[in-house]
Amino acid sequence: MSVLLYDTTLRDGTQSEDISFTVEDKIHVAKLLDEFGIHYIEGGWPGSNPKDIEFFRSIKQHNLKNARISAFGATRRAKLTCDDDPSIQALLESEAPVACIFGKTWDFHVTTALQIELHQNLEIIEDTLAYLKKHVDQVFYDAEHFFDGYKANPDYALQTLQAAKRGGAEYIVLCDTNGGTLPFELGAIIEEVKKQIDTPLGIHCHNDSELAVANSLTAVKHGITQVQGVINGFGERCGNANLISIIPNLKLKMGIDCISDEQLRKLYHVSHSIRELANMAEWKNQPYTGKSAFAHKGGIHVSAILKNPDTYEHIAPEIIGNQRRVLVSDLSGRSNIQYKIEEMGLDIDINDPSVQELVNTIKELENQGYAYEGAEASMELLLQKSRGLVPDYFKLRGYRVIDERREQDKEPISEATVRVEAPNGDTYHTAGLGNGPVDALNTALRKALEQFYPVLNEITLIDYKVRILNTTVGTKAKTRVLIESTDGKTRWTTVGVHNDIIRASYLALVDSIRYKLYKENI
Amino acid sequence: MSVLLYDTTLRDGTQSEDISFTVEDKIHVAKLLDEFGIHYIEGGWPGSNPKDIEFFRSIKQHNLKNARISAFGATRRAKLTCDDDPSIQALLESEAPVACIFGKTWDFHVTTALQIELHQNLEIIEDTLAYLKKHVDQVFYDAEHFFDGYKANPDYALQTLQAAKRGGAEYIVLCDTNGGTLPFELGAIIEEVKKQIDTPLGIHCHNDSELAVANSLTAVKHGITQVQGVINGFGERCGNANLISIIPNLKLKMGIDCISDEQLRKLYHVSHSIRELANMAEWKNQPYTGKSAFAHKGGIHVSAILKNPDTYEHIAPEIIGNQRRVLVSDLSGRSNIQYKIEEMGLDIDINDPSVQELVNTIKELENQGYAYEGAEASMELLLQKSRGLVPDYFKLRGYRVIDERREQDKEPISEATVRVEAPNGDTYHTAGLGNGPVDALNTALRKALEQFYPVLNEITLIDYKVRILNTTVGTKAKTRVLIESTDGKTRWTTVGVHNDIIRASYLALVDSIRYKLYKENI
User: Fold this and answer.
1) By C-alpha distance, which of A333, A385, A377 is closest to A354?
2) How many CA atoms lie within 13 A of A11 on its CB side?
3) Closest Cβ–Cβ partner in A245, A402, A468 for B402
4) What distance in Å separates the CA atoms of residue A418 and residue A428, rounded to the nearest whole number?
């Protein structure tokens, strides 16, 4: 048996209170999902906002390997025909090969929210689908509030599905929109639906009762073959069904084909990359991909794990790209480093004394708030520096940033100066303006360094992320800055931590520059 | 039907990587749980650490209303008698009226982890329970790895339960220790157990597959009458079964008696208080008790919620002490603004032209990157300013921030100056140092303003969040800053957006100050 995965991170996921993707973020997420083996990617709701229209235009220029792009929308408005309804037209203009539209199942919603007659709703469902069917490659129907609607009025709920079937829906997706349904109820209702509807069925769950994963699996157990969900369970209120948990549960525990073994090994990477793009705080205890998911603390557990990991692990962490952590100081440190060394393909013996020294250095830095996940370039610099393989390319003598707004209604000005000492002893004192203090600092720094390292003009900074660490002390909080750079060939990310955000940014900038020089073997 | 609630926040919950309670914290948690109506509180493992011994000594001086205190432990060591085993003796010395001990179910664990014969393990289980039964009021048995053990060797797994029964266990608790069991398997196995064991059964689940809540409910559906779990699902790896979700699911959805309606209204309070005591970061999307659990963002949802909250809520938030929130964002329209107006208790007609103007203003600001979700104070200021109800408390003439590091190995220094014009025309020019540029700016600004608005000295900044908006332009990216403030009575959050992070922070700081003055009717 196999199941199709339909991801709605870019649509329902963005309903989450704190998530707001740029178009570039959305493209990045779509490419990650495609590599991961997701079958359908719902890119947005073209009828509802201009950012989504831009995404659909842009994604066409990318060749996806596995996934088809889907556009979301609603059934036509009661007073308009499909030809006149701007939201329906926006779906067509998106040129997405798949359209997924939702309609009302629950009689109470038809009369209370839409305020139309029950039979009108059936006509709307049928003719919207029939219309789209003529223009779009595949059409899916999301039966909103299906389970609540079925409990309130089973006959009417099933009539809405019949209307969708007549309209030509290729999949009918049963939605637990309010997230209040229990697995036992859900399974029983699906069995009733199957007696009357032979269209393939999908499931779309929300996590308001902390049951979205269980409900999705239960639906599959009852024969449903399309699962809709969101990476990391992002979404409005308590979030959508979490694909990061559903996928390994399906594949490893229910033996259901959905993605390949190789794709499954990307689970950790996909989960963490999309969390970073969404700028959402870490969920350490996240099932499967959390940093603590395979971390062992209790003494009894640790000693058993050393004898055989199956004693306290439900799966082997490597299968999904995560790793075991044993929270016993120098054991965990060294194995982490070993893992990193192997990952970077470096030839260092784990028993080399420099490794133990490095473990201590990293521990100290981690105490200060450094984290090297996602900042592999800083990690590699640290590692190679401890082995004497990174020269002192320059000495930083000092810097100053002035950020000021002299008069009301004037834009602020940022000016930076830096003093840098070159290897030959010459000192360069340069100044630069910028779009904010960090940009000014970057300008001044590059002006100084490019005089003796012209190769640095290849670097462009492409991402800048700020995270506040200990948040209970207001503007005195410690800041972690991640900077992503490219030279057109590769990309690398560096990190800086300090309670002064300028200083933290400066540290990450300087690491980015050193990394480029190191990679060029200068 | 009724179910007994057995909380292990103070024992299994503290296995969480980041949780470390003091004895005072533990007493505080126990009292909260008691008021909440929990039946059994597992206070710790007296045989394993001195802090737990201190807790058991101390809790005896408190009169609990509902709960019995339980002490956790293991079956005796193979080479010792119960009289000689210090861990068993520590259980007795704790003087807890209930003892809950765990033993091995899985043959592989007996031979691999304990390294003893299978029959020896059965004798150990039976005689440990029999010994404790003579000294303690109630004795429970936790069958560790029960489901994995049953799948590996059902006969032996059931023999261990028979041994526990012979030993006199009042409850036999089936544990999904590794958290890898699916609800379907779990239900079927419990049915098999019930055929052979007539001792009352309990369930103890872990969340490694994001199924701990579903598994606990499934167990109850199959006749189990004691549920073990942890508040907020804290615990080792991915945590234990979350009582904060289990309790309302049992009571509101399965109609199972466990706590009173009045106690259920404390769910939000208990969840948040214990999170604070554990010093764990907020889980905004937490089912039932998260700040976002009843927050509505999409325009369609909001317009339906205004007609009837049942349209997009699975339960009424007041039942569990939470509340509804409506967010204003680029996905929203007039309905969200209307809801906000009502929430703030303002008397504004939605059809007032000022409202349409405000909607347009907000859309324009949102295009610039503003987001008012979580920044309700800035939203209220905007709304009231559009109606001429916020005076010009002061004019900001200009500011300057200098952030510099003069010499290598010196810490950076941040200095700010501001020029502010008071309503009477006087200009104040002040300076301040800080722990980073934003802190310096805050110091200088407050120094100026407190001269004519002394009430501002009540404000403390408690949180500072930075988000970079369009991330592909590196250090030129636009920055959104959220600042949370308090005056000891209430908390409010304000927002600022600019491509200069200093300027963005400054805008949020100034809004926070204006909001305080506005609220004081100055």
Assistant:
1) A385
2) 26
3) A402
4) 8
pLDDT digits (tens, 9 = 90+) for B87-129: 999 999 999 999 999 999 999 999 988 899 999 999 999 999 9
| Percent of residues, chain B, with pLDDT higher than 90 | 63
Residue A309 vs residue B497, higher pLDDT: B497
Longest dimension (CA), chain B: 91
A209 and B211 in contact by Cβ < 8 A? no
Percent of chain A with pLDDT over 70: 92
- By three-state DSSP, how is residue B58 classified? helix
**DSSP line for B110-164:** IIIII-S-HHHHHHHHHHHHHHHHHHSSEEEEEEETHHHHHHH-HHHHHHHHHHH
Eight-state DSSP code of residue A411: P
Q: How far is B424 from chain A (nearest CA, A)?
A: 18
Identify the weakest region by mean pLDDT among A341-345, A398-402, B16-20: A341-345
Domains by residue range for chain A, with CATH:
4-256 (3.20.20.70), 395-519 (3.30.160.270)
Hey, what are B273's tokens? Answer: 């208080």
Classify residue B268 as exposed, middle or buried by CB count within 10 Å of its CB (0-12, 13-18, 19+). Answer: buried
Contact yes or no for B404 and A407 at CB 8 A? no
Residue where the block lists tokens 């036992």: A184
Q: Any idea of the CA torsion for B354, B357, B363, B364, to the nearest 10 degrees?
A: -130
Partners of A101 in the β-ladder: A73, A141
Residue-wise pLDDT for B292-350, tens only, equals 999 887 667 777 877 788 888 999 999 999 988 877 654 456 666 777 677 777 777 77
The token duo for A279 is 């700028």
Shortest Cα distance, chain B CAs vs residue A470, angstroms: 9
Residues of chain A positioned with their CB less than 8 A from the CB of B180: 253, 314-315
Residue given tokens 């204003």 in the structure block = B328
Structure-model confidence comparison of residues A463 and A504, the more confident one: A504
A18 in contact with chain B, both atoms CB, cutoff 8 A: yes
SS (H, E, C) B243-298: HHHHHHHHHHHCCCECCCHHHHCCHHHHHHHHHHHHCCCCCCCCCCCCCCCCEECC
What DSSP state is assigned to residue A253?
A: I
B182, B408, B437 member nearest A502 (Cβ): B437
- Are B271 and B231 in contact by the 8 Å Cβ rule? The answer is yes
Residue A114's identity, in one-letter code, is: L
Q: Are strands B4-7 and B40-44 parallel, antiparallel or unpaired?
A: parallel
CA-wise closest residue to A175 among A124, A230, A129, A215: A215
Beta-carbon separation of A312 and B178 below 8 A: yes
Binary contact (A213, B214; C-beta < 8 A): yes
Closest partner CB to B398 (pick from A183, A239, A404): A404
B209 is written with which tokens? 């597959």
Could you please report the per-residue DSSP string of A306-333? Answer: HH-GGGT-SS-GGGGT---EE-SHHHHH
**Quick check: A17 and B373 CB within 8 A?**
yes
Residues in chain B: 522
Closest CA to A151 of B314, B236, B129: B314
- Residue A439 — left, alpha, or beta (φ > 0 → left; ψ -120 to 50 → alpha)? alpha
ipTM comes to 0.74
Contact A297, A284 (CB under 8 A): no
CB contact under 8 A, A286 and B238: yes
pLDDT above 90 for B240:
yes
The stretches of A197-266 forming alpha helices (DSSP H) are 212-221, 243-248, 261-264
Interface contact flag, B238 A22, Cβ < 8 Å: no
Residue A195 distance to chain B (closest CA, Å): 22
